[in-house]
Amino acid sequence: QVQLVESGGGLVQAGGSLRLSCAASGRTRSMYTMGWFRRAPGKEREFVVAIHWTGGNTYYADSVKGRFTISRDNAKNTMYLQMNSLKPEDTAVYYCATSSYCSGDGCSRAHEYVYWGQGTQVTVSS
Fold it and tell me: How buried is residue 97: exposed, middle or buried, by Cβ count under 10 Å (0-12/13-18/19+)?
Protein backbone atom coordinates (compact mmCIF):
# COMPACT_ATOMS: atom_id res chain seq x y z
CA GLN A 1 0.00 0.00 0.00
CA VAL A 2 0.91 3.63 -0.41
CA GLN A 3 0.00 6.27 2.13
CA LEU A 4 -0.46 9.85 0.98
CA VAL A 5 -0.63 12.92 3.17
CA GLU A 6 -1.47 16.36 1.77
CA SER A 7 -0.61 19.65 3.38
CA GLY A 8 -0.45 23.32 2.53
CA GLY A 9 -4.07 24.25 2.04
CA GLY A 10 -5.58 27.38 3.50
CA LEU A 11 -7.40 30.62 2.87
CA VAL A 12 -6.04 33.07 0.34
CA GLN A 13 -7.35 36.09 -1.52
CA ALA A 14 -7.98 35.99 -5.23
CA GLY A 15 -4.74 36.48 -7.12
CA GLY A 16 -2.73 34.93 -4.34
CA SER A 17 -0.66 31.76 -4.21
CA LEU A 18 -0.51 28.53 -2.27
CA ARG A 19 1.77 25.51 -2.41
CA LEU A 20 0.39 22.09 -1.69
CA SER A 21 2.51 19.10 -0.78
CA CYS A 22 1.77 15.40 -0.94
CA ALA A 23 4.10 13.08 0.93
CA ALA A 24 4.07 9.41 -0.03
CA SER A 25 5.16 6.46 2.07
CA GLY A 26 4.89 2.70 1.89
CA ARG A 27 5.21 0.90 -1.43
CA THR A 28 6.31 3.96 -3.34
CA ARG A 29 8.08 1.88 -5.97
CA SER A 30 4.64 0.99 -7.32
CA MET A 31 3.88 4.62 -8.13
CA TYR A 32 3.81 5.35 -11.86
CA THR A 33 1.66 8.45 -11.91
CA MET A 34 0.78 10.93 -9.22
CA GLY A 35 -2.00 13.40 -9.62
CA TRP A 36 -4.06 16.12 -8.01
CA PHE A 37 -7.82 16.16 -8.11
CA ARG A 38 -10.25 18.55 -6.48
CA ARG A 39 -13.87 18.59 -5.41
CA ALA A 40 -15.74 21.84 -5.01
CA PRO A 41 -18.94 22.03 -2.95
CA GLY A 42 -21.83 20.56 -4.90
CA LYS A 43 -19.65 19.54 -7.83
CA GLU A 44 -18.10 16.38 -9.16
CA ARG A 45 -14.50 15.50 -8.51
CA GLU A 46 -12.28 17.16 -11.11
CA PHE A 47 -8.86 16.31 -12.49
CA VAL A 48 -6.29 19.05 -11.98
CA VAL A 49 -2.87 17.78 -12.98
CA ALA A 50 -0.74 14.64 -13.14
CA ILE A 51 2.93 13.77 -13.37
CA HIS A 52 4.77 10.63 -14.35
CA TRP A 53 6.76 9.81 -11.24
CA THR A 54 9.90 8.65 -13.06
CA GLY A 55 9.86 10.48 -16.39
CA GLY A 56 8.40 13.72 -15.16
CA ASN A 57 5.89 14.21 -17.99
CA THR A 58 3.07 16.46 -16.86
CA TYR A 59 -0.56 16.86 -17.85
CA TYR A 60 -2.73 19.83 -16.86
CA ALA A 61 -6.41 20.52 -16.97
CA ASP A 62 -7.17 23.49 -19.20
CA SER A 63 -8.62 25.37 -16.25
CA VAL A 64 -5.27 25.54 -14.45
CA LYS A 65 -2.75 25.72 -17.30
CA GLY A 66 -0.39 28.63 -16.91
CA ARG A 67 -1.35 29.11 -13.25
CA PHE A 68 -0.54 25.83 -11.54
CA THR A 69 2.76 23.94 -11.64
CA ILE A 70 3.29 20.37 -10.54
CA SER A 71 6.68 19.06 -9.46
CA ARG A 72 8.13 16.20 -7.50
CA ASP A 73 11.11 15.31 -5.40
CA ASN A 74 11.74 11.62 -5.92
CA ALA A 75 14.27 11.43 -3.09
CA LYS A 76 11.67 12.73 -0.65
CA ASN A 77 8.75 10.89 -2.27
CA THR A 78 6.93 14.18 -2.28
CA MET A 79 4.84 15.91 -4.92
CA TYR A 80 4.10 19.61 -4.97
CA LEU A 81 1.47 21.81 -6.52
CA GLN A 82 2.34 25.48 -6.84
CA MET A 83 -0.86 27.42 -7.38
CA ASN A 84 -0.59 31.02 -8.56
CA SER A 85 -3.17 33.57 -9.64
CA LEU A 86 -5.79 31.75 -7.64
CA LYS A 87 -9.44 32.37 -8.43
CA PRO A 88 -12.54 31.86 -6.28
CA GLU A 89 -13.50 28.98 -8.57
CA ASP A 90 -10.35 27.16 -7.44
CA THR A 91 -11.96 26.75 -4.03
CA ALA A 92 -12.18 23.03 -3.32
CA VAL A 93 -10.79 20.16 -1.34
CA TYR A 94 -7.64 19.06 -3.12
CA TYR A 95 -6.66 15.40 -3.11
CA CYS A 96 -3.46 13.76 -4.22
CA ALA A 97 -3.56 10.27 -5.61
CA THR A 98 -1.28 7.71 -7.15
CA SER A 99 -1.66 5.06 -9.81
CA SER A 100 0.51 2.22 -11.04
CA TYR A 101 -0.32 3.02 -14.67
CA CYS A 102 -1.76 5.61 -17.03
CA SER A 103 -3.90 4.48 -19.93
CA GLY A 104 -4.18 7.86 -21.63
CA ASP A 105 -6.26 11.03 -21.55
CA GLY A 106 -3.46 12.79 -19.75
CA CYS A 107 -3.69 10.42 -16.81
CA SER A 108 -6.92 12.16 -15.84
CA ARG A 109 -9.08 9.10 -15.19
CA ALA A 110 -9.80 9.04 -11.48
CA HIS A 111 -10.70 5.35 -11.45
CA GLU A 112 -7.09 4.50 -12.38
CA TYR A 113 -5.84 5.98 -9.11
CA VAL A 114 -5.79 3.49 -6.29
CA TYR A 115 -4.40 5.39 -3.33
CA TRP A 116 -5.75 8.73 -2.22
CA GLY A 117 -4.87 11.24 0.46
CA GLN A 118 -7.33 12.68 2.94
CA GLY A 119 -7.55 16.01 1.16
CA THR A 120 -6.65 19.58 2.04
CA GLN A 121 -9.02 22.54 1.84
CA VAL A 122 -8.17 25.46 -0.42
CA THR A 123 -10.41 28.51 -0.11
CA VAL A 124 -9.98 31.53 -2.36
CA SER A 125 -11.88 34.65 -1.35
CA SER A 126 -12.96 37.27 -3.84
Answer: buried
- List, for residues 61-105, the tens digit of each pLDDT value: 999 999 999 999 999 999 999 999 999 999 999 999 999 888 888
Non-local (6+) Cβ contacts of 24 within 8 A are: 2, 3, 4, 31, 34, 77, 78, 79, 98
Query: How many Å from the N-terminal Cα to the C-terminal Cα in the chain?
Result: 40
As a whole number of angstroms, the distance between CA 67 and CA 89 comes to 13
3-state SS, residue 40: coil
**How many angstroms separate the CA atoms of 108 and 105, rounded?**
6
- pLDDT digits 0-9 by tens, 95-120: 999 998 888 888 999 999 999 999 99
